[in-house]
Amino acid sequence: MTIMPLVRHLPSANLLSASFSKPLRFLSMATKTHLDSIDSQVKNDPTSLQNYPVPLSPPLPSISKNIELNRALTASSRSSLFSLSRNHVLFEDQWLIAINKPQGIYCENVLSAVPSLLTDSTDSGTEVKLTELHLANRLDRDTSGIMIITKSHKVAAKLVKAFTEHKVRKTYIASCVGQAPKWVNITMKSGHGRSRYGAWRVYAASDVGKTLPGGSIVKDMETLFEVLSVNEQGQFKEFSESGRDISEVMIIEQKSEIDCNLKKDEILVRAYPKSGRTHQIRLHCQYLGMPIRGDVKYEGAYEWKERTYDGHELHAESLSFEHPVTAENVLIQAPLPSWACQFFESEPLWTN
Hints:
The chain is an alpha+beta fold. The chain has helices at residues 13-44, 64-80, 107-120, 153-164, 280-287, 338-341, and strands spanning 89-92, 96-101, 134-135, 144-150, 169-178, 185-194, 200-203, 219-230, 248-251, 265-273, 303-304, 307-308, 314-322, 329-333. Helix content is 25%, strand content 24%. Strands 1, 2, 3, 4, 5, 6, 7, 8, 9, 10, 13 and 14 form a twelve-stranded mixed sheet that branches. The chain has a two-stranded antiparallel ribbon with strand order 11-12. The radius of gyration is 28 Å and the shape is globular. The termini are far apart. 33% of the residues are buried. This is RNA pseudouridine synthase 1-like.
């Protein structure tokens, strides 16, 4: 039996040209006006790719990916074993409890540990429905300091609203490595948003309100910084609940120019975030050329003076707000971590 090859007879090139030339000419003429219109809309559309705001801070360093993954795995293991004691409690009444969260512990694990603490406590004031415990604020995994947990849904709604509306005053302490600033106090104003790759970035203040890839909007971001110590030379200052009234103002409109060859200093700063944006203090420290020590995501030193850092050195120092039930003014302070105390010859009284 002979198998004949399958042959397909194709029309000649001339025939193809004759067959398709008219439809192609017709399609081009019919759509030319429409395509010109689309092109004009893209050029004038503020959401088109060429008109998206350009981030002013650099992308995530390539080294950060593996380091952050290892840190996350370590934190997950550590957090699963975490338990609270009365030593972690900074404030408590029948509506709220404030916890001093350690570095490298996830907020959700702190929340999960609260029921055991309240159940074992004899001075919590009232019976608490454990299902109504709620995180009023969140801290990054490696940020230590004050976390507030509410004991009822109604109180949670009021306090979360106060955080959202920036009615809660906050201070943070950060250990940075970079060129020592010439200013003592400075207020930074910029935009804040996610780049097309999902990373949080600094944007120009004039870009606030503009649309980013994915449809999100550039939001305003404002932080007041106060230098406390440079190279362990300085004197600890008590924070001001209202922030420092007099400071230089930096309105960010272009990329920062940092000379990487200059001598690097150790700088301890206090930050007063006026807005509540994700990674706000970390981003502004990076922009200033003095990223937080250990903050590899935002160019912070991973190794410094023969030591490797397991996380960034940022601490939620204080919170002040109007109590959501009693309307009294509440001030909560967290002891300073040991890394902050090392900047001062005499240890501050309020330390961990």
